[in-house]
Amino acid sequence: MALLEFYGRECPHCERMHPLVERLTKEEGVKVEKLEVWHDEANAQKMQEYDRGNCGGVPYFHNTKNKKFICGETGYEELKRWAKE
Question: pTM of the predicted model, to two decimals?
């Protein structure tokens, strides 16, 4: 999977990003693998492996193909660029 979203279930920033990720999937046809990290130790470990100290929190978006990432909330256009590059 090339596009990863790490999030926390109760995270308000993650909740605000959810509609943008859904829109990205619907409008651009891309799939984003969603990994909850606050209640899942394996996903938290995976996030640390990809994050490598860049963000340290959620939401954290990582493109495994080009290694680009987004820390925190962002707008739809930046999210789309991250996914399409």
Answer: 0.94
Q: Check if the beta carbon of residue 23 is closer than 8 Å to that of residue 76.
A: yes
Both structure tokens of 7:
């999030």
Kindly state the tokens that stand for 39: 């209640």
When the candidates are 3.30.870.10, 3.10.20.30, 3.30.70.1060, 3.40.30.10, the CATH number that belongs to 3-84 is: 3.40.30.10
Residue type, 34: K
Calpha distance 60→29 (Å, rounded) = 20
Which pLDDT tens digits describe the chain residue by residue (85 residues)?
599 999 999 999 999 999 999 999 999 999 999 999 999 999 999 999 999 999 999 999 999 999 999 999 999 999 999 999 8
